[in-house]
Amino acid sequence: MNTGSEQIDSRHARFELKTLLDTSRMLIESHDLDFVLNNLLLISMGKLFCTKSAILLWNKTEQVYEVSKNKGKTGLFEGQQIYLDLSEKLQKKSIIYSARDNDGTLPGLFEENELCVIFNLRTSAEHIGYLCMGAKANKQEFSDRELEFIENLVNISAVAVSNSILVRQLKNTNLQLDRRIQEIHTLFDLSKEFNANVDLEPILKIFKFALLGQMFIRTFFLLLHRKGSEPELVVHSGMKGTIAPNEMVEMLKLNHTVTRTGDSHRQRFESIEKNGIAALIRLDLQDDVAILGVGKRATNETYEPSDFNFLSSLGNLAMLSIQKTYLLDERIEKERLEEELTIARTIQEKLLPDSINSYDGLDIAASNVSSQQVGGDYYDVIHHDNQLYLAIADVTGKGIPASLLMANLQAMLQVLTPLTESLSYATGKINDIIYHNTPSDKFISFFWGWFDINTDEFHYVNAGHNPPSMLRDGNSKTTILSDGGVLLGAMPTLIPYKSSSIKLVKNDIIVMYTDGVTEAMNEFEEEYGEERLNECIIKNRALDAGGVMDAVLADVKKFTNNNYNDDITMLVLKKD
After folding, report:
1. Strand 288-295 and strand 220-225: pairing?
2. Tens of pLDDT along 501-549?
3. Contact partners, residue 356, CB within 8 Å, separation at least 6
4. Are 309 and 417 members of one domain?
5. How far apart are CA 317 and CA 311, in angstroms?
6. pLDDT-based confidence at residue 217 (cuts at 50, 70, 90)
7. Which of 340, 320, 299, 27 is nearest to 154 (CA)?
8. Strand 444-452 vs strand 457-463: parallel, antiparallel, or unpaired?
9. Are 542 and 507 in contact (CB under 8 A)?
10. Are residues 250 and 386 in the same domain?
11. Residue 475 half-sphere exposure, CB side, CA atoms within 13 Å?
12. Which residues make Cβ contacts (< 8 Å) with residue 549, sequence separation at least 6?
């Protein structure tokens, strides 16, 4: 026959069993970690008549325990991290009494905070954490039945906690996946917006709004360094002041993809300190480099690695589009310059004689081959009364500046030739005009003369030009026409230019040329030179002026494999 005490114990046992069954059903069905932990604490505290308790969960990532729930004055706070290095013996125990079982590896905070009994929260597969309970409110000892009940409750709750943690991780993973998908969609939409624009301003606006709208970044800058150019601040927002050139250079030296700014960076870069720049992101695209500096987010959220991945992708998209605008501008500018050069070339061709007429007693041939669309070589043939003026010149440099100076020389010759009989005086006047009206690094090598149709005399002045080669009829060697003075534009005319004259007889040949002929190089960087030129003239002396000129040009072309590196101009005279 059962006594009253046994009946009470039986009722308690049935009640506890029902409580465990109901609790297990409730906890296992719930995937809310906070709900599971709260119920575990409240049921345990109610059963043991405790006023304080805490749950420590194991953080696998950081290898520490975190206070996930805390009730009463335990001396702990939720979110606190605690490092435990329990002995293997304590790790295996289901229940640890802080006073009785401590072998020296249990931190003193448990006894100090009166957390007298600790339950190992674990499943069959893993350790999850600890349930820490304070003493009973009435200071009595825990009974075996009470501890057994809590131990069973802990075992049931451990499964629910493990499932809830797994569900939370899955939810976080799904949220991150959703966010990544959203970011991919955003980047895809932004790429379409970037590609739809060819002007820099709307591209920078899209980039600015993306940073503000997607990442809530109000303060930022984009520093770009294009190959062959100085670093420039392409776009910025919310910045106080600007970035000094020396800071730009130093930022571009940062090789890490992401640099979170610290005290050392704030001391090194005034703009980072002044604007609260949180991170610098390096962007590399072909030969160009950019630095994206971002301030703190308006939401005060910290930057995660995934955020930097998004910012890098966004920055590369923007950088690619910015490059596209620069390349387009360069292409337009190049086409504009090519059009202008074509016009300049047409004008320059008009400045040269349209055709070279044959005159009684003198056969003339001329050629101008420019290494660029416009050049600095010049020749002219001007007929005035019984005088035939012939000139050849070479302006230092190439391109448009040289062609402009050449045009000025042509204009002066057209004005002076009908007005002067003194080559020496006219050359001095030309030199002074060029000296006073051109940069100090611009000079003209110049040779000119006039042929008297009545007397067959040729009067000339050489102003620092390659001396023309003269081959007399019957001679086996050439001579040079070198009398004159210094280059045009090198210095004012302090000493008059010397003029000389020679009388031409039948079959005499004079070959005027620019240095593009004699300085033409072959693949071995060997110059064509005066010796080869004179040999070619002598070899082809029987030909007319045009034949001699064509023979020289063909020889130079063969020597250089048709690869001229300078303008080539020739003016050939042969006495009939």
Report:
1. antiparallel
2. 999 999 999 999 999 999 999 999 899 999 999 999 999 999 999 999 9
3. 364, 365, 366, 381
4. no
5. 10
6. very high
7. 27
8. antiparallel
9. no
10. no
11. 16
12. 365, 366, 367, 511, 570, 572
| Site of tokens 């955003």 | 186
Whole-number pLDDT of residue 178: 74
Tell me the per-residue pLDDT of 156-167, one tens digit each, with 9 for 90 and over. 888 888 888 888
Torsion angle of the four alpha carbons 330, 332, 338, 341, in this order, in degrees rounded to the nearest 10:
-90
**Token pair of 51 as six digits:** 């006023």
The SS3 assignment for 75 reads: coil
Which amino acid, residue 177? L
What is the maximal distance between C-alpha atoms in the chain? 164
- Domains of the chain: total: 3
Q: Is 334 within a domain? A: no
Question: Exposure string (b/e) for 147-170, b if CB count within 10 Å is 16 or more?
Answer: bebbebbbbbbbbbbbbbbeeeee
Q: Would you state the structure tokens that stand for residue 159, as one six-digit string?
A: 């499964």
Residue 188: inside a domain: no
CATH number at residue 204: 3.30.450.40
Structure-block tokens of residue 376: 């600095």
| pLDDT tens-place string over residues 322-372 | 888 887 777 777 777 777 666 666 666 667 787 777 777 899 999 988 766
Backbone dihedral region for residue 139 (phi beyond 0: left; psi -120 to 50: alpha; all else: beta): left
